[in-house]
Amino acid sequence: MILLLSAAHAAGPRCERVGVDGLVPEGTGPAIVVLGNRPRVEADQRRAGKLVRTLDRRGAPVVLAVQVLPDVDPGWASVDVLLEVPLGERKPPEATLAVPPVYIHALADALGDGPMPPELESRFVEQVAWIDQQLAAKALEGWTGEGFLVVLVDRLHVQGGLGVAWQLERMTETPVSAALLADAGTHCVESDRILKKPLF
C-alpha cells in the first residue's frame, strides 16, 4: 500500500523551479511578475524582497503592488501600490467577468482535501475570479508601464498559473509571468512554478 501511494505521489504533477531570469528574461522591461505568497510567512516576504532588489539592479523602475489582507501587516517599507479588494466583495450583476476554464480544479487542489459541495462551485469560482480581476486592474492602474510591476498576492490567486496573472494577460500586452514563493509542502497544481532557492 505504501508503495502504491508513493508511486501515485511521484506520478502527480511536478512544480517547475524557476529563477529570476526564468521569470523575467534579462532586460529592463516592461514586464509584470505575479508572486503568490503565504500571508504572515516572513520567509515568503524576504524572497519577494530579494526578487524586487534583483530587478531593481537592472536599472529600470520597479513598482511593488501588495494585496491587503485582513489582520495582515504587509511588512514592507516601500510598497508602491496597496491592492485593497474586500474578500467578500461580490461582482455587480452588470459587470463583465472572464473566468479561466476549469478554474475549479486548480482552486480545489489549492484548498486541500475537503470537498466543496457542487452547488457552491460556480459561486465560489466567480467570487475568486472577481477578486483576481480587481487585484489585476488595481495593480495596472498603479503602474506607468515602465520597468517592472511586481504583484504580491495570496497564493490562492496564483495557483495553477491562473488567477491574477491570467487576468493580467487579458488586460495588457506586456509579458506576464507568475510563480509561488515556496512549495509550502502542498500538492503541486498543474502549471505551478516555484521560485527556486537561491533565486539564480
Write the layout of secondary structure elements.
Layout: H1 2-11, E1 16-18, H2 20-23, E2 31-37, H3 42-56, E3 62-67, E4 81-83, H4 103-111, H5 118-141, E5 148-154, H6 163-171, E6 176-180, E7 193-195
Parallel strand pairs: 1-7, 2-5, 2-6, 3-4, 3-5
Helix pairs in contact: 5-6
Nearest-angstrom radius of gyration?
17 Å
Enumerate how many helices there are, as a single number: 6
- Coarse morphology: globular
Q: How much is the average pLDDT?
A: 82
Which structural class matches the secondary elements?
alpha/beta
Number of domains: 1
| End-to-end Cα distance | 39 Å
Helix percentage = 25-40%
Strand percentage: 15-25%
Number of strands: 7
Q: What is the element string, with H for helices and E for strands?
A: HEHEHEEHHEHEE
| Strand arrangement across the biggest beta sheet | 4-3-5-2-6
The main sheet comes to:
5 strands, parallel
Low-confidence stretches: 1-12
What does this structure look like?
There is one protein chain. The chain is an alpha/beta fold. The protein has one domain (15-195). Helix content is 36%, strand content 17%. Helix 5 crosses helix 6 (163-171). 32% of the residues are buried.
In short:
The chain is α/β, with parallel strands linked by helices and about 200 residues long. Helix content is about 35%, strand content about 15%.
